[in-house]
From TrEMBL:
Uppermost EC category: ligase
PANTHER family linked: CARBAMOYL-PHOSPHATE SYNTHASE SMALL CHAIN, MULTIFUNCTIONAL TRYPTOPHAN BIOSYNTHESIS PROTEIN-RELATED
The gene coding this protein: carA
Active-site residues, as the UniProt record annotates them: 251 (nucleophile), 335, 337
Organism this protein belongs to: Paramuribaculum intestinale
Keyword Mitochondrion part of the UniProt annotation: no
Protein name, as recorded: Carbamoyl phosphate synthase small chain
Length: 356
């Protein structure tokens, strides 16, 4: 019989969910959020946007296809979205100790142990998700048997963008056109999507004054936490807007471009974290199924006159992107690079490249 340690998730309102540990045996805390995707846990765990969060997977089984190798090509991971796990922990209803996939290098449990990340299963994730939908995302802590208690931790009070951003300027790919990519917590597939289109990418830290660089276009990445913490990035974006050069943003990039334009941001009740968020392009009848991972949103009503909404969420009507009415500036709240998720909107990279 398999020996497992007991583990309990305690929410800040006192609600408890008891389960079993399958990852690293340590107590931890963070913001508890849920993701409704059926696949993609290696990509989600390594997505810097999950920094400081405890990830609940609504799909009932986890670990059945293992984890791909940590293989790099030109300083970028081939299969993962960063060089390590960013989520504080992961929670599932059931965990498969036996995995099967041609690309798997090891089990999810072994990977979590290597990275010192707790994992819990045998949790009623349907009840947990319903609770989070009613109450909203909340703080929580995981206490593993024999590991002691920890304090609640609120990642939104910390500058997570500064925590996950690169510390130095990096160059990726080669081409006649140069794109500055501001790293607010960039997913590696954004780099892959840009270099695959034949441009040179200069990756810079979140607070780096990229206006001193000679470039053809500016790209603002995704990232974790509260966009109000990244004011230095907003200030640099405003300077870049004066040049008239093309600008594109994804997720956090959408929020930071909106702040630079003068719009306001607010926190969603429980965020959008899934592969199946439907969005409509304004002015058309075209809808796209998108991959998303964010807890904040742009208040479309606060956009200045020269800006307009580009996409809208068909589930709750929230903003999913903006664009300038006359200048080559636009952004998307969803992830056109997916990883994981549908690639229905990857054409946005082509639209950005065509502007250079």
């Amino acid at each position: 019989m398999r020996q497992t340690k007991k583990a309990v998730l305690i929410l800040e309102d006192g609600t408890r969910f008891e389960g079993k540990s399958f990852g690293y045996e340590a107590s931890t805390s963070g913001e508890v959020v849920f993701n409704t995707a059926m696949t993609g846990y290696p990509e989600s765990l390594t997505d810097p946007s999950y920094e400081g969060q405890i990830l609940v997977t609504t799909y009932p089984i986890l670990g059945n296809y293992g984890v791909p190798p940590e293989r790099e090509k030109e300083q970028v991971s081939e299969f993962l979205e960063s060089d390590h796990i960013h989520a504080r922990a992961i929670i599932a209803q059931d965990y498969s100790y036996d995995h099967s996939h041609w690309q798997a290098a090891r089990s999810l449990g072994d990977w979590l142990k290597e990275q010192h990340i707790p994992g819990i299963y045998d949790i009623d994730t349907r009840a947990l998700t319903r609770h989070l939908r009613e109450k909203g995302s909340m703080l929580g802590k995981i206490i593993v048997e024999g590991c002691g208690d920890v304090e609640f931790y609120d990642p939104n009070k910390e500058n997570l963008v500064a925590k996950v951003s690169t510390r130095q300027v990096e160059t990726h790919g080669d081409g006649d056109k140069t794109v500055v990519l501001v790293d607010c917590g960039v997913k590696h597939n954004i780099i892959r999507c840009l270099t695959r289109r034949g441009v040179k990418v200069i990756l810079v830290p979140w607070d780096y004054d990229f206006n001193q660089i000679d470039y053809d276009g500016l790209f603002i990445s995704n990232g974790p936490g509260n966009p109000d913490m990244a004011q230095a990035t907003v200030d640099n974006i405003r300077k870049a807007m004066d040049t008239g050069k093309p600008i594109c943003g994804i997720c956090m990039g959408n929020q930071l471009l909106s702040k630079a334009a003068g719009a306001s941001i607010y926190k969603l009740k429980y965020g959008h974290r899934s592969h199946n968020q439907p969005v409509r392009r304004i002015g058309t009848d075209k809808c796209f199924v998108t991959s998303q991972n964010h807890g904040f949103a742009v208040d479309s009503d606060t956009l200045p006159e020269e800006w307009e909404t580009l996409f809208v969420n068909m589930n709750d009507g929230t903003n999913e992107g903006i664009r300038h009415k006359t200048k080559p500036f636009f952004s998307a709240q969803f992830h056109p690079e997916a990883s994981s998720g549908p690639k229905d909107t990857e054409f946005l990279f082509d639209e950005f490249i065509s502007l250079l």
